[in-house]
Amino acid sequence: MARFDVVVIGGGPGGYGAALYGASAGLNVALVEARDIGGTCLNRGCIPAKELLQTAEVFRTVAGAGEFGVQVGAPSIDWTQAVKRQGQVVSRLVKGTTGLLGRREVAMYAGFGRLAGAGVVDVMGSDGAGERIEADAVILATGSAPATIPGFDIDGDRICTSDQALFWDPLPRSVAIVGAGVIGAEFASALTDVGVQVLLLEALPKMLGSSDPELSEHLRKELVKRRVDVRLGASVTGHRPAETPGMETIAFTHSGEDLEADVEKVLVAVGRRPYTGGMGFAEAGVAVDARGFIEVDPETLRTSVDGVWALGDCIATPALAHVAYAEAMVAIRAILGEAPAPVNYDGVPWCVYTHPEVAWAGLDEDEARARGYEVEVVKTNYAAIGRAMILGETKGFVKIVADAKTGRMLGVHIVGPWATEQLTEGYLSVNWEATAAELGHLVHAHPTLSEAMGESALRLTGRSIH
After folding, report:
1. Contact between residue 237 and residue 150 where contact means Cβ atoms under 8 Å apart
2. Angle 374-379-382 (CA atoms, 0-180°, nearest 5)?
3. Which residues partner with 71 through β-bridges?
4. How do the pLDDT tens digits run along the chain, 466 residues long?
5. Which residues pair with 202 in a beta bridge?
6. What separation in angstroms does the CA of 212 have from each of 219, 381, 421, 432?
7. Residue among 299, 252, 295, 292 at smallest CA distance from 276
8. Cβ atoms within 10 A of the Cβ of 1, count?
9. Which residue, 25, 89, 211, 461, is most buried by CB atoms nearer than 10 A?
């Protein structure tokens, strides 16, 4: 029976992140994965989704090239080529990650991992052959699966989740998206740009869940301008085959009216659920809550069983790949007996790759006031930024939420061009507890989009240039 310092169940960002970080610290690590290295993020989530969003951006850019004096004619979309390129990008990243694991001498087990007790993992291969491995520590990084709603059984044809929608070929002419969180919003943005008729239904009164209301409202308005039919506060009541062959009728209630729409596809994008069933957790004594999340000590990510840790989408923390990476380092450092700095979940970066992009870190106005802060808020519109004018992307803003007494930056919220790339400065400022004066007096290169951040911070000091 093989024995290791650490066995990781799950090869997504949290799992392979823990394996690589542990191996770099000198630990003898095994990684168990039943499907593909990279998990949901690399194979069925972040990477393939952003690849298709990039296709939509290129299409949109070419369509607007005439404004810059570049005459190319009306573009057309070859979705088969877009999906092919998506597969190539994913394949290269999977091979690269697998190769890195090999170079770090992580032992790879292809099969379904089941916790058989503290320090014991059973691996069942696709051929039915089983193997037991032991370790001083076990990390559970089993990830998540798309959530569904009652009455919408996923058939992978007309009723789909993001797992299928990422690989649609050919593109449908019309789609109803149920859920306007990050996944639903990104699909709506990409699909409308390439000519798909989109109906976006959300039960809540705003998009993007925990985002600042001003950010989500700005995105809603921009999607509507691009012909997305956005219905907030909508209750989906059912679906049935439409009278037109190949179509599906989706029924919903909105603004007191019972409504129906015929579409080719229904995309259920109501979030994700932890993948923790049937893996021996309860039998081994690992506490799991009513929603299926593994319960952990937030400081160390230890479970209720000595020698077992959990991280990533299978615990009740933000389901983000970069959060899973951070949690992987916490778990490994705890296993090594070090004193890990726990993840500050209030301050993690959130990035939404819609057009316009949306990104934020830290508290919004309401959250800050609820925690007793005297809040001061400053916004700088991209319409005043030279680089944004050059790009032809002047809609949106940078918004900083600060403590009026100390000037400390509590939250940074961005909607506009390359918001996801600009967020890093805001994220660092919030998490290093910088003041607006400290950030505002740093030199921001001109002309850059980052000037919006510098201008916002400087204005919080009571003085400004522009």
Report:
1. no
2. 165
3. none
4. 799 999 999 999 999 999 999 999 999 999 999 999 999 999 999 999 999 999 999 999 999 999 999 999 999 999 999 999 999 999 999 999 999 999 999 999 999 999 998 899 999 987 777 899 999 999 999 999 999 999 999 999 999 999 999 999 999 999 999 999 999 999 999 999 999 999 999 999 999 998 999 999 999 999 999 999 999 999 999 999 999 999 999 999 999 999 999 999 999 999 999 999 999 999 999 999 999 999 999 999 999 999 999 999 999 999 999 999 999 999 999 999 999 999 999 999 999 999 999 999 999 999 999 999 999 999 999 999 999 999 999 999 999 999 999 999 999 999 999 999 999 999 999 999 999 999 998 999 999 999 999 999 999 998 888 7
5. 232
6. 11, 16, 18, 21
7. 292
8. 7
9. 211
* Residue 246: how many other CB atoms lie within 10 Å: 10
CA distance 176 to 378: 37
All residues at 6 or more sequence positions from 21 whose CB lies less than 8 Å from its CB, including other chains? 328, 329, 332
Gyration radius of the chain's alpha carbons: 24
The distance in angstroms from the start CA to the end CA of the chain is 69
Distance CA 151, CA 333 (A): 44
Cβ atoms of 176 and 250 closer than 8 Å: yes
Residue recorded with tokens 């400022």: 429
Q: Are 183 and 268 in contact (CB under 8 A)?
A: no
Contact 385, 396 (CB under 8 A): no
Say which DSSP state 199 is in: E
Three-class SS of residue 183?
helix
For residue 12, which of 303, 280, 312 has the smallest C-alpha distance?
312
Q: Pairing state of beta strands 197-202 and 130-140?
A: unpaired
pLDDT tens digits for range 139-154: 999 999 999 999 999 9
Q: Which two tokens stand for residue 321?
A: 């790949």
Question: Which domains, from first to last, does the chain contain?
Answer: 2-145+273-345 (3.50.50.60), 159-270 (3.50.50.60), 356-460 (3.30.390.30)
Spatial contact of 39 and 142, defined as CB atoms under 8 Å apart:
no
Handedness of CA 127, 132, 134, 140 (dihedral sign): positive
Q: Are 149 and 203 in contact (CB under 8 A)?
A: no
Pull the structure tokens for residue 132.
């037991």
Q: 17: closest CA among 399, 331, 386?
A: 331
List the catalytic residues.
446
120/138 Cα distance (integer angstroms): 8
pLDDT tens-digit series, residues 219-238? 999 999 999 999 999 999 99
